[in-house]
Q: What sequence folds into this?
């Protein structure tokens, strides 16, 4: 029977753990403290992130990284993007071939704009680099916990490694496709959160579906432009990690990034919104990181720039929309 270690007791990490146990996999969930692990094991619930959801017997928590990773075939890094480096450093001494290392975080590192696979590679032995993968797609955790069907994509540098992850994760209600465009899958998953912030702002302002559809479409074009400059396959952005994830995150009330944008559109401050949230909206930090990456690659990102100014420089959302609408409209392609 396969063993899987999940680093992080986040909503998505716990969801993946529950899903894996449904197909008979034994899962160890690594918690940051012994108290947190004990509480999860005692109550059979991850109350802060998934209140009311009963954890299966095959899922146990531990605060020992060595115990969590013992005999694991797959290690899932389900932590916020800005804590990825610190967490993979803790795991690194216990990672051994042929372990697979899967990033489930959808973000870029602030300060350098690095993708999660790049961050992981910098902190582990070179022999493990081919085993680094990324998971992305339209995967709203609460729907998956509820047993609703979902589809995702796993990317790795080789098809063989991607297929190994595919076999471990696939189930009747969770269909896993493979891709060897690690750059495109990671960028699609991270950058769509920025566009989801803007789609939420449009909803908060009451601008209607025409405006939101146009914003999503132009947002996808902006994602693809940066992705191409970074070396991604353009077809990736028409797939699950691009268009698929973009539709779900920009449309669903379950999306944290959409929620933050909508509340901004209604006039609340970013500090007030984030203080009321238990989970992190990755799009906030990713906006800063994406602009750093765009500057390094010489790519113009007008939508991301406006979102940045709304988030961090006090730009009124209505003014931001007016600025985008006032840009010259050239050829669409």
A:
């Amino acid at each position: 029977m396969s063993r899987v270690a999940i680093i992080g007791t986040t909503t998505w990490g716990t969801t993946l753990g529950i899903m894996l146990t449904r197909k008979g996999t034994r899962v160890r969930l690594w918690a940051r403290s012994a108290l947190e692990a004990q509480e999860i094991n005692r109550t059979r619930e991850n109350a802060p992130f998934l209140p009311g959801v009963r954890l299966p017997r095959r899922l146990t928590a531990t605060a020992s990284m060595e115990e969590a990773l013992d005999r694991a075939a797959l290690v899932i890094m389900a932590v916020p993007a800005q804590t990825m480096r610190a967490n993979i450093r803790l795991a690194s001494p216990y990672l051994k071939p042929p372990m697979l290392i899967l990033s489930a975080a959808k973000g870029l590192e602030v300060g350098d704009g690095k993708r999660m696979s790049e961050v992981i590679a910098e902190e582990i032995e070179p022999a493990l680099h081919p085993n680094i993968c990324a998971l992305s797609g339209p995967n709203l955790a609460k729907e998956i916990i509820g047993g609703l069907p979902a589809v995702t994509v796993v990317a790795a540098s080789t098809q063989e490694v991607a297929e190994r992850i595919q076999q471990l994760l696939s189930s009747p209600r969770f269909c896993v496709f493979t891709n060897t465009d690690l750059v495109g899958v990671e960028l699609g998953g991270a950058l769509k959160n920025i566009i989801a912030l803007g789609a939420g702002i449009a909803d908060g302002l009451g601008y209607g579906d025409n405006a939101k559809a146009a914003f999503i479409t132009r947002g996808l074009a902006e994602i693809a432009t940066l992705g191409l400059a970074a070396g991604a396959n353009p077809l990736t952005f028409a797939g699950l990690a691009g268009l698929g994830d973009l539709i779900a995150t920009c449309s669903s009330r379950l999306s944290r990034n959409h929620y933050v944008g909508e509340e901004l559109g209604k006039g609340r401050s970013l500090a007030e919104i984030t203080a009321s949230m238990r989970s992190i909206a990755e799009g906030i930090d990713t906006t800063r990181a994406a602009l750093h990456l765009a500057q390094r690659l010489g790519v113009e990102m007008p939508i991301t720039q406006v979102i940045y100014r709304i988030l961090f420089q006090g730009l009124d959302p209505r003014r931001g929309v007016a600025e985008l609408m006032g840009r010259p409209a050239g050829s669409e392609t």
In short: The mean pLDDT is 96. The longest helix spans residues 182-205. The chain has 15 helices and eight strands.
